[in-house]
Amino acid sequence: MPGQLLRVVTAGSVDDGKSTLVGRLLHDAKAVLSDQLSAVEAASERRGYEGADLALLVDGLRAEREQGITIDVAYRYFATANRTFVLADTPGHVQYTRNTVTGASTADVAVILVDARSGVVEQTKRHAAVASLLRVGEVVLAVNKMDLVDFAEDVFDTIVTDFAKAADGLRLERFTPIPVAALAGDNVVDRSANMPWYTGPSLLDYLESVSPHDLAAIPARFPVQMVMRPRTAEFPDYRGYAGRVEGGALRVGDSVIALPSARTTTVAGIDTADGSIEQAEIGRSVVVRLADDIDVTRGDLLAVDVEPRPVMTNRVTATICWLSDRPLRPGDRFALRHTTREVRAVVDDVRSRLDISSVSSIHTGELELNDIGTVYVRTAEPIFVDPYELNRATGAFLLVDESSGATVAAGMIAHV
Question: What pTM was estimated for this model as a whole?
Fold first, then answer.
């Protein structure tokens, strides 16, 4: 029975070989059905390739296949004897940074690819910055195409040193470097005989053994999505609150505080489509029944009544990734979506921007497309938050253009 679920995101610059790496990982891990492989072999033959282009296992959009690039986030699910994986292959183009943010937002591990011939480039630093800001617990530096530099150890060492300098500036605490040649499968699933100087694990060995950050250890949060009142003969007085557990585990008998009312009560029951349960872990969608009849509605938050408790506030300092062609300036107004709550908000100040080339913050008055910066945000109504480093659900938000409905920024709360 496959073990603990691991969410993995791959990122890297254009043509670093992300799709090929993912395809090789799926193929060599025996996670590709025979009819899928036959279709890829046939498509590769039509293109005049000598062998199967395993990148086609991932590049599913027609535009991706035609251009040989990744545009959308491609999710793949597979399992080995030791673990189950959800793998998100994200685009390399700067213009699709928003998709990289989406793929990394739920990841336990980020695999950042670097072409051994090119080394660390600006987009490598951008993806490392995204992994750092989104608090991805583990980062792998996969130096790909080692076969094209004659599997040279000094080339690998230079790239690792350059990446370490960038990681230090981004406060990326640790990373694991692995030299690979995805086209032939060197160090992807099996250790390569072509690089005897490398004594570490293959990529799959690493992914099967790494221990992700224990999100179950943080206090439970339960954003209320919907009030359930069936009004049937079987349940004439039923009242429950539907949502998903975000952090920790919620148990029957837990004392919880309801925000914004700040009333305390007890979890009387937890219901699912398959019946009642005593405990709901992080990520589980359930209906919670409370012991007391208190005013709770969509957008409210139930939190286990222990420290640290969520902070109810209307002012936050946040790091955001700006995703719109229109620059962000102080005074701009948006709808702010935080868990199941939506409020109006204004950006009071744009404090700084991360300069990707120097990996340092510089003072600025606005943010351009794909910029990462620090802003002050004020909301018209209170939101109930944790710092992002504590809880990636209650510490994150989206800014939405009210006129178009487009998401223009993804934000991570640093301070209240």
Answer: 0.80
